[in-house]
Hints:
The protein is built from 11 helices and 8 strands. The protein has helices spanning 8-34, 40-48, 67-79, 86-101, 104-116, 231-267, 279-307, 311-340, 352-357, 360-363, 368-379; strands at 121-124, 140-144, 147-158, 165-173, 180-188, 194-198, 209-219, 224-225. It has a 4-stranded mixed β-sheet, covered by helices on one side. The protein has a 4-stranded antiparallel β-sheet with strand order 2-3-7-6, with no helix packed on it. Helix 1 crosses helix 3 (67-79), helix 4 (86-101) packs antiparallel against helix 5 and helix 7 (279-307) packs antiparallel against helix 8. The chain is globular, with a radius of gyration of 21 Å.
Amino acid sequence: MTRVIETEEHQALRSAVAALGRRYGREYLTRIVADGGYPDELWSETAKLGYLGANLPEAYGGGGGGIAELSIVLEELGAAGCPLLMLVVSPAICGTVIARFGTEAQKQQWLPGFADGSRTMAFGITEPDAGSNSHRITTTARRDGTDWILSGRKVFISGVDIADATLVVGRTEDARTGRLKPCLFIVPRDADGFGRRPIDMELHGAEKQFELTLDDVRLPADALVGDEDAGLLQLFAGLNPERVMTAAFAIGMGRFALSRAVEYARDRSVWKQPIGAHQAIAHPLAQAHIDLELARLMMQKAAHLYDSGDDVAAGEAANMAKYAAGEACVKAVDQAVHTLGGNGLTREFGLASLITASRVARIAPVSREMILNYVSHQTLGLPKSY
């Protein structure tokens, strides 16, 4: 049975992370981004307090929790205006995959560093020609003795410049069928033949986006994560947490925007009473709050299913949570900006930049249209159109 009321431990975690977020806030992150830096202080303190590795095993320095706990951390930092995007990538995707499928040596090498904040790992799956069709991934890995040789391209990969390595999704040939199957490889940042080019984005964030080239990158046998024949299982072990964490990112952003709008609507008076007394202002804000709360419930369900080991049900719920949270976030940001009018477009209130940022949850890591495809095919049993 899915718990819909948070435990006392989860409530305490939410309260503690919210307090941490308030000490930094939107102004801190805005200044860091403007200076072209990275929120190292917040990242380090989040790690020191034990939140960064909340989902990682205690044996490797983590908190022993799951995606449910880590999603609370990201949501509350986002609600304070200072979300950490690399939480989605390093501990959630890469940490989960290595904790579940990595060798003991890989766990010892990476998980303690993920938990204490000293090491990070990016995740490379998206390709310029494949789009949302993971079956068209052309990054390939071939054996050369005991080594692997990786060749291909990736695009829109976050934080490669600050990460110690990138967990790259490639494809290897199945010796039995000759078909290509997905596999995951740890590629060190300084590996020969591993190049990166920054992508000039209108969206301004601390974590930059990159195009990657893998030009016959030679890797040792132990760069492969997990079983060569279980690629899809290992891949979705990372993609489902990614969807849950993207939902947390969106819900936190929506809550931040909504809180700014509510505060403004309480205080701003044009006639005799605050503008929040008018239903044309109050009702859309109430609807935004309801949508965010509903999205959080689906996110909590997805996290619960994933943490309990039900990968199939978690896949469906994670996609639904990501969809619901993306829609709720965009609507909350739009209504918040509209509530403030011209002030919503000023830097003083910190909302205008969210107009662009809020679109991310609709687009990445998978578009809302592909989620609707998933639900129509997998849940409703309707035929495919492609």
